[in-house]
Design a protein that fits this description.
- There is one protein chain.
- The chain has one domain: Alpha-Beta Plaits (2-Layer Sandwich).
- The protein is built from 8 helices and 5 strands.
- The N terminus is likely disordered.
- A 3-stranded mixed sheet has the order 3-4-5.
- The N and C termini lie far apart (51 Å).
- The protein is an alpha+beta fold.
- It comes from Plantibacter flavus.
Length: 207
């Protein structure tokens, strides 16, 4: 995969990962990001986590405000599990090097950033919410084949096959643009279905 010097995430001299925990970022989001915190606003890693939290909140809020029948359509424990995965996987993890650039500069992207790219691909794919993402293989060796294992929830009424295919394309394009990873396989497991925000009212209407 071609090297891209505009890779999102920590660059030389920048700290790896986000310096704030998932609870702190959730509180910041609930305060509408006020007062502004530059350590969050200027951190690419923190911004990636906030985007994922917004996506989960966009699903959770209508459910929590709906009647009991709608709430059971997407269990709160499941939402909590997604939040925990976001927090756990946001940690920097292993350094993943780019192919040699011909000089002494060592360019790397963190494992947490790659997981953020996968979640971003899910956010861009209608009906997809990424649950867990695991990188299997020696990511520290340039050119070493790796596998990605991703669990996702698919929006109710969406074609699972078509939605997963679109998600795969988004993941492949994002990783090709931003990393030098050699992805030998992408395992996508659909482990749940969820209602999109605009479908919550329809659940109650059917009762």
């Amino acid at each position: 995969m071609a090297m891209n010097t505009d890779t999102p995430g920590p660059g030389p001299g920048e700290p790896d990962g986000c310096a704030h925990g998932i609870d702190a970022l959730t509180d910041y989001l609930e305060r509408d990001m006020l007062p502004a915190d530059p350590s969050i606003d200027e951190s690419p890693e923190c911004q990636r986590i906030l985007r994922s939290l917004r996506r989960v909140r966009s699903l959770a809020t209508p459910l929590l405000e709906a009647d009991e029948a709608a709430v059971t359509a997407l269990d709160q424990d499941w939402i909590r599990g997604i939040m925990e995965n976001i927090g756990r996987e946001a940690k920097a993890g292993r350094d993943i090097p780019f192919a040699a650039s011909g000089d002494d500069a060592a360019l790397v992207i963190t494992e947490g950033t790659v997981r953020g790219l996968v979640r971003g691909a899910g956010d861009r794919t209608p009906g997809v919410l990424v649950g867990r993402c695991v990188l299997e293989g020696d990511v520290a060796v340039v050119g070493e084949p790796i596998r990605l294992h991703v669990t996702v929830s698919i929006g109710w009424g969406k074609s699972v096959a078509e939605t997963v295919s679109l998600f795969r394309e988004e993941v492949a394009a994002s990783l090709q643009q931003h990393t030098d990873l050699v992805v030998a396989g992408l395992d996508v497991v659909v482990d749940d279905l969820h209602f999109e925000a605009d479908e919550i009212g329809e659940v109650g209407d059917d009762e």
